[in-house]
Structures are given as C-alpha cells and as structure tokens.
C-alpha cells in the first residue's frame, strides 16, 4: 500500500504533538487555583495527602490517554480513509468496513469517557457521602444497621467485582463504619444500640451549629451591654466628682449628689450582673466552638479519606475501560484495513501479473535548426554594453540554437539577435536579461 509523502509528514507531526502532550502530562504538576478558605483547615495532613493523591491519579490518567491517542494515530494515520469511496458494501467486506469503524470509534469514545471519570469531582459534603454509603449499606428508621460492630453491605458481589467504584465504596464503608469508626468520625457519636456513623456526625454538627447560632447573638448583646454600662459608670463618676467639688460653695447640690450616687450604685450593680452573664455565655460559646472545631476536623478527615478512595475506584475503572477500548480500537482498525480495496486489490494484482519494468527516462530534446525567441537585455549589464543604446530594455527578435534543454527565463543563454538594428550573436549571463520562445 503506497503512502503519500505529505500523509507521512502529517502523521509525524501528529505523533510529535502527542509525544509533547505525554511529556507535559507526565511532568511536574501545574499550579491549581487556591480553593476558598473556610472553617475546615486546608493544611492538615489528610487534606494534603488527598490533594497529592488526586493530582497523581489525574496525571497518570492523562498520560494513559495520551499514550492511547498516540497508538491510535499510528494505526489510523497510516490508513487511506479516502479509499472508502471505492468500497462496495457487499458481504462480507461491507461488514468488516462498517463494523471496524464502529468498533474503533467505540474504543476512542470509551477511552475519552474513562479518562474524564478520573477528573470528576468527588463528594464535597457529608450529605453526598452519606447518600453514597446508604446505597450499599443496610439502613432502617434509626440509621445504619450494624452486626457485631460491622456494617451490613447490600451491594451485589458480582457488580462490586466488575465495578471498582462500588468495591472501593464498600471498602470505605468498612473503614468509616467499622470498629474504629470513632477514630474517623469523632468521639461520643455512638448510641446505646448504634455505633458512630456519618449520619450521627452530620446530626452532631447540626446540633453544635444550632447552639453556636443561639449563643453568638447573646454574647454579642451582652458585650454591647457591658460596654454601655462601663461608659455610663464613667460618666456618672465624673459628674459626682464635679458635684462634690461644688458642695462647699453651693449647699443646694447635696440632693443632686445623692441622686447621682444612687444612679452610680445601680449602674455598677447592673454592670457586675452583665459581666457575670457575659462570662458564663462566653464559656458556653467557647465550649461549643471547641466541639465544633473538633468535629469539623473529623469531617475534613472523613471527606479526605472518601475522596481518595472514590478517586482510586474511578481510576481502576478507567484503567479497565481503557484496556477494553484499546482492544476495540485494535480490532476495529484491523477490520477496516482488511476491508479497504487497496489492501485486497494489491494482493490480486501482484499475484496475477508480474511487476512492470520501468520505462527509460526520456532524453531532453536537442534543437539544431534553431527556434525563434524573444529576448530583453537589461540596462547596465555586461551584455547591454555590446549592443546599441536603442536595443536595451526592449523586446528583441532572436533565434536560439541549442543542443540542450530550453534555458531559464532569466538566463544564462546565447542567442542570435535578428532585429535589424541589433543583429549579432550575444551571450547573456544569469539575471542580465529575459528569454522566452516565440509562439
């Protein structure tokens, strides 16, 4: 099967581009956009390990897709797709052709879908994780069901064997809802008949956030009240000092001093009461915040573990689908190549008739009688110096007598000028004039 030189060049460029893509995919990780900061610490060991695992899996998946695309380009880039027009859809060549293309396209689409699965975002909340676990674990009205401290899995074993995502989800359920669930989800989440679960962590976080929402406004109001009473006591104290300074000169201020003193005492008493209430509420709020931060850290740990486990399942499924896609592409490309008419006709031609002998290369014509031509000699050249002034930079009739190929248009050439005013033989160098045969 003959391959055009331009097709080889395009195929080489495509392979080179794919090679650069593979090198980029296998190189250093690109900087990702920083996620918005929240209450959950982003610099914990669990979060960093989950981020590193996600980048590693995604980088490997990109490398696998690039390698698959390079092999596909080598297979289909060497096949003449233009030959499809010469194919007659007959049994069985038509089936091989159409079936091969369908299989190849199915393999390529499967490869793209498989790699895109690795880039899908994992569960970003406990609610999503709880929903995923409920799809594989037995539950009742009270929550998850446990037998001897272990979760009861309801997923089909055959389906779990075929789909690595479900298998990894089952493994995650045994880790989070296993005997050491409190180490992952946090302490004091287990009840009398149920051990700690994602649902209980969600409920505890909701309770703590509700308590925080109740206490925070109370603390804010008490803080404002204490500040107000402190300012009032300060003002009353200054007023008492002024009144007592005027007592010697104005005995009538004695009554005003008594009234101000009573107000000062009442404000001081109220200030002590507000400070005591503020201290109590601040302690309660600090305890709630401490609990909330602890369970949020466990939430971060659980989501990091779930993210790595889910990504591992998607990667294993993508690897399996890529293997199937490679087989489909190989069989599809082979069937398509066998159905092309050039592949079968070349075999028939070579077996039916011997290879033709190449014809000898034609020899260039020799001209001995001379051919009429038109020449122009440029001014300022060596050839122009041999001609009269009126013969320069204008078309002159001439006869070319040669025994080789026709000279180039821009020379060099040797002609016999037949123009009346410029008769004579002249040799023109390259670029000194122009030459063309007269028609």
Walk me through what this model shows.
A hairpin with a 2-residue loop joins strand 1 (139-140) and strand 2. The two termini are 44 Å apart. Helix 1 (5-26) packs antiparallel against helix 2, helix 2 runs antiparallel to helix 3 and helix 3 runs antiparallel to helix 9. Among the domains are: 5-25 and 42-119 and 330-351, no CATH class; 205-296; 367-437, no CATH class. It contains 10 helices and 9 strands. Helix content is 59%, strand content 10%. The longest helix is centred in the C-terminal third of the chain and has 86 residues, at 254-339. The strands form 3 sheets. The chain has a 5-stranded antiparallel beta sheet, with no helix packed on it. The protein has a two-stranded antiparallel sheet with strand order 1-2. It is of the alpha+beta class and 439 residues long. The chain has helices at residues 5-26, 45-77, 93-118, 126-134, 157-162, 164-176, 181-185, 198-246, 254-339, 341-352, and strands at residues 139-140, 143-144, 146-147, 150-151, 367-377, 395-402, 413-417, 424-428, 433-437. Residues 1-5, 28-41 and 343-350 have low confidence and may be disordered.
């Amino acid at each position: 099967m003959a391959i055009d030189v331009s097709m080889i060049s395009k195929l080489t460029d495509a392979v080179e581009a794919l090679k650069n893509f593979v090198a980029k995919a296998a190189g250093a990780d690109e900087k990702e956009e920083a996620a918005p900061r929240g209450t959950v610490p982003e610099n914990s060991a669990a979060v960093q390990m989950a981020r590193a695992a996600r980048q590693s899996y995604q980088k490997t998946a990109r490398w696998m897709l690039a390698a698959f695309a390079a092999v596909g380009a080598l297979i289909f880039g060497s096949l003449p797709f233009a030959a499809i027009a010469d194919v007659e859809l007959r049994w069985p060549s038509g089936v091989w052709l159409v079936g091969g293309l369908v299989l190849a396209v199915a393999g390529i689409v499967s490869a793209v879908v498989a790699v895109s699965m690795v880039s899908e975002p994992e569960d970003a909340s406990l609610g999503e994780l709880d929903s995923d676990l409920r799809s594989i674990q037995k539950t009742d009205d009270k929550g998850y069901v446990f037998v001897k401290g272990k979760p009861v899995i309801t997923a089909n074993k055959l389906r779990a064997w075929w789909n690595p995502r479900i298998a990894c989800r089952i493994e995650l359920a045994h880790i989070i809802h296993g005997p050491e669930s409190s180490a992952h989800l946090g302490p004091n989440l287990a009840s009398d008949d149920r051990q700690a679960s994602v649902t209980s962590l969600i409920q505890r976080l909701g309770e703590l956030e509700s308590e925080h929402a109740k206490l925070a406004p109370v603390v804010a109001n008490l803080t404002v009240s204490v500040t107000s009473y402190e300012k009032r006591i300060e003002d009353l104290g200054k007023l008492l000092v002024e009144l007592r300074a005027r007592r010697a000169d104005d005995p009538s201020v004695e009554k005003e001093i008594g009234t101000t003193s009573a107000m000062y005492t009442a404000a001081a008493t109220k200030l002590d009461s507000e400070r005591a209430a503020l201290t109590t509420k601040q302690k309660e709020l600090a305890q709630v915040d401490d609990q909330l931060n602890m369970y949020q850290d466990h939430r971060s740990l659980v989501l990091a573990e779930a993210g790595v486990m889910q990504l591992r399942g998607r990667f294993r499924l993508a690897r399996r689908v890529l293997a199937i896609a490679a087989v489909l592409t190989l069989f599809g490309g082979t069937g398509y190549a066998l159905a092309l008419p050039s592949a079968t006709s070349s075999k028939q031609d070579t077996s039916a008739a011997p290879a033709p002998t190449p014809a000898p290369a034609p020899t260039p014509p020799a001209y001995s009688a001379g051919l009429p031509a038109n020449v122009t000699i440029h001014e300022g050249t060596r050839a122009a110096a041999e001609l009269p002034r009126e013969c320069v930079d204008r078309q002159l009739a001439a006869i070319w007598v040669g025994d080789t190929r026709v000279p180039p248009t821009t020379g060099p050439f040797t002609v016999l000028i037949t123009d009346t005013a410029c008769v004579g033989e002249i040799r023109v160098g390259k670029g000194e004039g122009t030459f063309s045969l007269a028609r």
